[in-house]
Amino acid sequence: MAPLDVASHIEAVVALGARSLQWVGDERDRAFVRWKHVENPFGASPAWGAWEGRRLVAFRTLLQWRLGRDGQDLRVVRAVDTATDPDHQGRGLFRRLTTQAVEELTADGVDAVFNTPNDQSRPGYLKMGWVELGRPTLLVQPSSPTALARMLRARVPAALWSEPVTYGEAAVDVADQLRPADIEQWATPRTTEHLAWRYGFEPLHYRAIEVKGGHAVFRVRRRGPLREVAIVDWLSDQPDPAAVFRLVRACGDYAVAIGLGPRHGFVPVPRQGPIVTWRTLANPVVPAFGDVGFALGDLELF
Q: Can you give the pTM of this predicted structure?
């Protein structure tokens, strides 16, 4: 077990991802790893790996992130990509890499880790000291009652890669026009640099539309037979249900969001949002879930 410099080992990371995560292992995957884990303006992702000779057999990466409030700053990381070679599973590599990451990040002064593990992986995280922070309410605007019923029956994950659409503008092209809404809670500092990076990777096809008082950033993904419009950032202090309605009508079967509400034309779907977990590191304080203003773009898997 040793720290892993992702920038120097992209080929090994992508090769392992192809063996264990169903990645294709092509140039798009290499560009994705570079964008996500090397080019992040918050900093390159700290990572750890296990090797068998020159062959990478497991890795654990944590995405650098920040949360700010009233001039204060929390240095946090998101527990994201992890993989173990199929021939080395069941040997505790994931747990050992994660434990090492926790120890070294704590020593480095990182405040906390957050993530949204699924039902299968969450118990393992809880055993390693994570706690459940809360579950945001998933908000939905369906194109029709039939689309809502089909969405609720679609028990499949959304595709990793977005569907290309022409509605709106490429988010990266208007990044300098995107202005975050005022948020009183702990929230991601949405600087122009961060927004240009976060929504600028072309294969994920993030788009922006004008809404009253600002912009909304979205992407379209397949979830089974349905097209899901994920509104990942609402960069306005005003609702605009008409803009959401037009977006859904143009691009998908339904829209999803968190942190908005009925004024935006959405209806809540109880117990459907991702459960957010938190692991204290150098900072022992666990915030109340209501004190953190997560947008879908802070929590979605990408």
A: 0.94
